[in-house]
Design a protein that fits this description.
Elements (H helix, E strand, L loop, with lengths): L2 E3 L5 E3 L11 H8 L12 H11 L7 H22 L8 H19 L7 H11 L11 H30 L6 E2 L1 H9 L5 H10 L3 E2 L1 H17 L4 H15 L4 E2 L6 E11 L2 E3 L1 E2 L4 E6 L1 E2 L13 E4 L5 E12 L2 E8 L3 E2 L3 E6 L1 H25 L5 E7 L2 E7 L6 H17 L4 E6 H6 L13 E7 L3 E4 L14 E10 L2 E8 H22 L6 H34 L4 E3 L2 E7 L5 H15 L2 E9 L2 E8 L9 H11 L3 E4 L3 E6 L5 H15 L1
Parallel strand pairs: 3-4, 5-10, 24-25
Antiparallel strand pairs: 1-2, 6-7, 6-9, 6-15, 8-14, 9-13, 11-12, 11-15, 12-13, 16-17, 17-22, 18-19, 19-20, 21-22, 23-24, 25-26, 26-28, 27-28
Helix pairs in contact: 2-3, 2-5, 3-4, 3-5, 3-6, 4-6, 5-6, 7-9, 11-12, 15-16, 17-18
Length: 670
């Protein structure tokens, strides 16, 4: 290793060039244990032997079986560690890598005749095998197994769909070659791997057009690069990279909310400029700043820039890292600004204070969740802004009300203790040794900032925080739910937002007390009594409606016509709801034994239609088609079963003609 290549391709000589032998743990183990293959060491071979026992196969007897067993063992080990560390199978990022290796193991084992779920059993064995150097793996055995088993079932379902699509597609092939476009669709849309396609193709005497497939893959990669979410920032990165070479932005915001700062750069329309006119939108870089740049889930600060005279010259809409180490301020100029100007940068204190309350509360929430739900809980994303905090975490079950209450109690207990929120900068290894929690996949420098609530929470974090936990005031969970398989989301509020919510809830409670004429202590009992009364009244109304419908059925006898032994009725009965119409239609159908009944009712919402046909006539007339035809005439839609259907529309004026016309058509069919 001789050079460091940066994003622009520039090669910088390394201070200590070296040779990478590739001598990793497995190869060292192989040498020390006298083995030729990594797979024969005590790191992997026991997993292979366990897999062979699960499948009822022998290792070493068949090359194809050996390959599948090695893949299963290696990927089971990787999956166990990744899922334990908080990675979950998904369609993007590290989750996609995990899903790919898991499916590769499943696919290869399926090809040697094993179709039952197996990988979840292997990950449990991995945890037991590795528990001496990695005892923490045993804490998450059940969670890992559940994640893996769910993914195995998902793969089996997906494969069945993909296999059907493959079979359907090859039936219409003109030649003996599967086109690249079709092969890529099966791969990209249905998840059918190329080697599986080749295996299935051989079974049918077909071949894949690999060259065309590779072209499709190339086009897809180009589309992915073009739609990369960082493309816009990448366009201006060279300008920021040059600025970074002159030095990093000094962040003063941990201690100061205002500072004198020199303008180093102005960028408008992605181009560096020396001056900015009033009314322009641009991006500005200072030599130092009190503004926090949006990172780690915490939003960028907002505020105002002032000239030496005290005149406001720009509003800061947000701040973000143009490149790591360089804070960029997105501004709306109120007066002319030039490179070299010294401005007073002032962060909007109320917004910053609300944000840091929520950020410290996020740390308390994370620690409380781990205490209540288990240490498998790990952060999977967060948003910290003035109005709320949002925290995503790994957990494979809904959090019940009692658990949320306990999480809230633990958080607010720490807030009441008014503990000091200590921050220290130390070496990464030292921070990890103190028990500080690091987020999987995050990049940390040699030195890190540790934020600690003594005896409760210790995390690596570069965000802004309150001085003491009591500054948070109170923390209230307002929502909890699932956002994807194995990932939950909690939203909470603190400080003034929590006070406002309490006042609104208390106001609503008082208003309800006034409406039901009960004091707050008696409110629940009074509401329960009212609900019981309502249910009783609804039951009575239902019985009355049924009696009215029965009474109406007698009045409709004279309106029905007899056609070839069957009764035909098309009638409008205003004032009846759908339930009454259904009850009446069903009653007439049962009474007449052989009948077609079409009933309609008009109210302020439009036309309601119910059609019923006895079983003996559904071969000639179907209720679903009658409801659809009537509904179409009155400007709506309808449909249902051959013997009972519903519909409706808005054009009440067309109803009479519709009933008359459809009735005539039915009579002709009978």
């Amino acid at each position: 290793m001789q050079f460091d290549r940066d994003a622009q391709g520039k090669l910088t000589p390394l201070p200590r060039p070296s040779i990478d032998t590739g001598m990793g743990l497995e190869r060292i183990a192989a040498v020390l244990q006298g083995k030729i293959s990594n797979y024969d060491t005590d790191l992997i071979r026991p997993i292979i032997d366990h897999a062979a026992g699960l499948f009822g196969l022998a290792y070493g007897a068949d090359a194809r079986v050996d390959t599948a067993l090695r893949i299963a063992a290696d990927h089971a080990r990787a999956a166990a560690f990744l899922i334990h560390d908080g990675v979950l199978p998904s369609n993007e990022g590290r989750g996609y890598v995990l899903r790919k290796i898991m499916r590769r193991a499943m696919r290869n084992v399926r090809l040697i005749g094993v179709e039952d779920p197996f990988l979840y059993k292997l990950t449990g064995f991995v945890a037991a095998l590795m528990k001496s150097p990695y005892p923490e793996l045993m804490e998450s055995v059940e969670r890992v197994a559940r994640v893996v088993k769910d993914e195995e079932h998902r793969y089996a379902t997906t494969f069945l769909v993909a296999e059907k699509m493959f079979q359907d597609s090859i039936r219409t092939l003109a030649g003996r070659q599967i086109p690249g476009a079709l092969s890529f669709k099966l791969y990209d849309t249905y998840g059918l791997a190329l080697d599986e396609q080749e295996e299935m193709a051989r079974e049918h005497g077909l071949a894949l057009d690999r060259e065309a497939f590779d072209e499709e893959m190339k086009t897809q990669r180009e589309r992915a690069r073009a739609s990369w979410k960082g493309a816009e920032k990448a366009a201006v990165a060279p300008a920021y990279q040059k600025l970074l070479e002159r030095g990093r932005t000094r962040f003063l915001g941990y201690t100061d909310l205002a500072a004198e700062c020199r303008v180093l750069s102005l960028i408008a329309d992605r181009e560096p400029v020396t001056h900015l006119a009033a009314g322009a939108k641009a991006e500005l870089v200072f030599d130092q700043t009190p503004f926090y740049a949006e990172t780690g889930g915490q939003v960028g600060d907002r505020g105002t820039l002032y000239a030496a005279s005290g005149e406001p010259v720009a509003n800061v809409e947000t701040a973000f890292p143009g490149v790591p180490g360089l804070t960029v301020h997105r501004i709306a100029a109120l007066a002319p600004i030039a490179v070299g100007d010294v401005l007073r940068a002032v962060v909007a204190a109320p917004l910053r204070n609300a944000t840091r309350r929520n950020h410290t509360a996020t740390h308390l929430l994370h620690a409380a969740l781990r205490e209540v739900l288990g240490t498998h809980v790990k952060q999977a994303g967060s948003v910290v802004e003035p109005g709320r905090l949002r925290f995503d975490f790994t957990h494979y079950a809904a959090v019940d009300r009692a658990e949320i209450d306990e999480v809230e109690r633990l958080m607010n207990d720490q807030i009441l203790r008014n503990s000091e929120v200590a921050t220290r900068v130390m070496a990464l290894d030292q921070a990890i040794a103190t028990g500080a929690m690091a987020l999987f996949g995050e990049k940390y420098g040699e030195e890190v900032r540790v934020v600690c609530v003594p005896g409760f929470s210790t995390e690596l974090c570069g965000g802004t925080h309150v001085t003491r936990t009591g500054d948070i005031g109170v923390c209230k969970v307002v929502a909890e739910g699932s956002i994807s398989s194995g990932v939950r989301r909690i939203e909470a509020i603190t400080g003034e937002a929590a006070l406002r919510q309490y006042q609104q809830a208390n106001g609503a409670l008082k208003r309800i007390s006034e409406l039901v004429r009960a004091s707050e202590p008696e409110l629940i009992e009074q509401v329960e009594r009212l609900l019981e009364t309502e249910r009783s009244l609804e039951h009575q109304v239902k019985l009355l409606k049924e009696k009215l419908a029965q009474a109406a059925s007698g009045a409709l006898e004279s309106q029905a016509r007899t056609v070839n032994g069957a009764r035909l009725l098309a009638a409008r009965l205003d004032g009846m709801d759908r339930q009454q119409l259904r009850t009446l239609a069903d009653s007439l159908r049962n009474k007449w034994k052989s009948a077609v009944v079409m009933l309609a009712s008009v109210d302020e919402n439009g036309v309601a239609i119910v059609c019923a046909v006895t079983k003996d006539l559904t071969g000639k007339v179907q209720a679903g088609k009658l409801a659809a035809a009537l509904s179409q005439v009155v400007g709506g839609k309808g449909g249902g079963r051959p013997d009972m259907a519903e519909g409706g529309g808005k054009d009440t004026s067309a109803l009479a003609g519709a009933l008359e016309r459809i009735s005539a058509e039915v009579e002709a069919k009978l």
